[in-house]
Amino acid sequence: MQPSGRHYVVVRPLFSEDSFAEQHERINRTRKTLRLSKLCLYCLHCSCDTNRAKNAARSLLPIIGWIKNYNIKEWLLGDIVSGISTGLVAVLQGLAFSLLASLPPGYGLYTAFFPAIIYFFLGTSRHLSVGAFPILSLMVGAVVTRLVPDGGPPANITGFEGLSMEQQRVLVASSVTFVMGAFQLIMGLLQVGFIVMYLSETLVSGFTTAAAVHILVSQLRFVLGLDFPGVNGPLAIVYTLENVFSDITNTNVADLVTSIVIMALVLIVKEINDRFKSKLPVPIPIEVIVTVIACGVSYAFNFEKRFNVVVVGEMVDGAVEAFPMAIVGFAVAFSVAKVYSVKHDYTIDGNQELLAFGVSNMFGASFRSFAASTALSRTAIQESTGGKTQIAGVLSAMMVLIVIVAVGFLLEPLPRSVLGALVIVNLKGMLMQFRELPFLWKNDRTDFVTWVVTFVASLFLGLDLGLAVGLGAELFTVIYEPEGVKIFKIPSPIFFANIDFFRDKLVQAVGFSPLKVLKKRNKALRKIRKMLRNGELEISDRGLEVRRPSTDTSEDNNSMEGLDQPIDFSGIPIQVNWNTELPANISVPPVNIHSLVLDFSAVSFLDISTLKEFLRIEVDVYIVSCDVYIMEKLHQCSFFDDEIKTSIFYPTLHDAMLHILEKHPDHGELEKVFTVICKLSRL
Predict the structure, then answer these.
(1) N or C: which end of the chain has fewer CB within 10 A?
(2) 16 — alpha (psi -120 to 50), left (phi > 0) or beta?
(3) Long-range interactions of 232-238: CB distance < 8 A, separation 24+
């Protein structure tokens, strides 16, 4: 391994499964056989049923698995400290992110409480802090302001009758959240957690950076103390900036000064936290400190009446856009959870996470909360302050509950400009993603284009349409392949119910049916043999040429038999080039690939008929990332024969592509191949 800056280069031989097996001996475990009586067999059957039920319960309720192993002496104190610290931040972020959702601040507290309680029982991450997430809050706000605008009548919805504007907005937000949760629940039940593979790091980076700019612009009216209606839809950011600059002379100086002071203090202290995190027992809770101070100063000097500052005010007492919200919320939460699961050496289940967030959002929506996911800063606090399990998460929710039912009135004098300032300060990490662009431009132009396209589309078209455009750009770069090569990734196991679906998709991807091509070629060879026997064709330097037109137009009664068998060139003295024009108006569908690579990393069953059809029309087939136990089963059931050989299996996509390049050096460029490989490896 050779170091190269922040990257590494691994040098090893090119392996197929055969060559790898030759150089690395496999150690097989011996399995002992037990002789069991009928009574033992009956007990074993009952035990299996019991174990199956226990496993199902642990899968559905992961808390059963970890709570019995909870180490009270070593973990409880850390969870308590973490829960209190995270709870304080969750309260402030709940209030602040409510502004992004165009809702009264108090409703963000519901989002910090109800979903967290459900996730405690259903989630598989031990460190995720469940609650409001700024990007999701902004997406909810776009729906809210579209259906219940600030400066016009609401949409014609039956449920709006007799409700105030605030109640209408809460109804919209909770309804969208419920549908979002339903989408997540359905995807979890359908076991489609793999969908996050199609949101690459580059796409997410461009999307979240654009979202950060949206959030920054949306908070300007609170920081400057301006009063104008919210805008949503395509070009919303342009119209919002137009409103800001046209009304900037009405800036509330008290709001502006308060915001600047708070942002400066929070940024400075956060920098201190980062630089001295190894020496500090816990990060300085600067957001909590400035909030308490701002509340006290605002109350003491009566900011609301003396300076016309808009405050939080009275605290509350105890669709189509939903699908991209469901994807974004899950993708962000899963990515963050994966980081900490790797750091602390435990596993998370993507499908169970979908179920957990689906039920959490549906339950929360029933109690007027809006879309929940996670925030990286809040989860980082929960982990860095000693949190070991979701006990910290539920204690954090209890802190929020105390604010909801007991001490929420103390936050009523808090200026909204303070919340806007806290939101802007917490965007630093996402806005700093602009620094990735020079590196991407230098090292991966395809990723650079994906980032820029996703960012620009999300910025000007809105987050929902921008995500769709970015995903389209990502998929376009993935299907870009070396000339003559098709790479087909199957993201789930193949079984009898979906094998026809995948076969159709494969035929659609390559652009032709191998069976039809095979039959056409065999039929063409029969005609060529017949014309050669009758002296109607002759062989020249240019290949086959017509000597005289054929007069026999009859068809054999058994002409269709055997057409699906391997091509046999016997009786024909030259090799037929199927890519050139054939004589006597013989027509055969073109085949524009020479190699087909099948990524079977998620496949547990294999049907050989389609593979043989490709091989028989001279398209090399390679299978990569096939599980070792599946290979065993293939050997046991006599899968391999003269056509399907073990040599078509390769341990990785890289190995297969390098072999193809060696075999077809004139097709495609090495740089293009590695671009495709890297993109596919990330998805």
Answers:
(1) N
(2) beta
(3) 232/141, 232/142, 232/143, 232/145, 232/146, 232/462, 233/142, 233/146, 233/462, 234/460, 234/461, 234/462, 234/465, 235/460, 236/142, 236/462, 237/213, 237/459, 237/460, 238/460
**pTM (two decimals):** 0.64
pLDDT greater than 60 at residue 16: yes
pLDDT of residue 340 exceeding 50, the answer is: yes
Higher pLDDT, 311 or 193: 311
pLDDT band at 551 (very low <50, low <70, confident <90, very high): low
Which residue is associated with the tokens 């700093």? 432
Largest CA distance in the chain: 110
Task: Please identify which residue in the block is written with the tokens 């006290």.
Answer: 296
Token reading at 454 = 């996703």
List CB contacts of 667: < 8 A, sequence separation 6 or more.
Answer: 482, 483, 484, 485, 594
Here the tokens at position 370 are 């809006």
How far apart are the C-alpha atoms of 69 and 82, rounded to whole Å? 19
Instruction: Output the CA angle 512-515-519, nearest 5 degrees.
Output: 110
CA atoms within 13 A on the CB side of 637: 11
Q: Are 83 and 392 in contact (CB under 8 A)?
A: yes
CA 522 to chain centre: 45
pLDDT in tens, 342-392: 778 788 888 889 999 999 999 999 988 999 998 877 888 888 888 899 999
Cα 193 from chain centroid?
A: 8
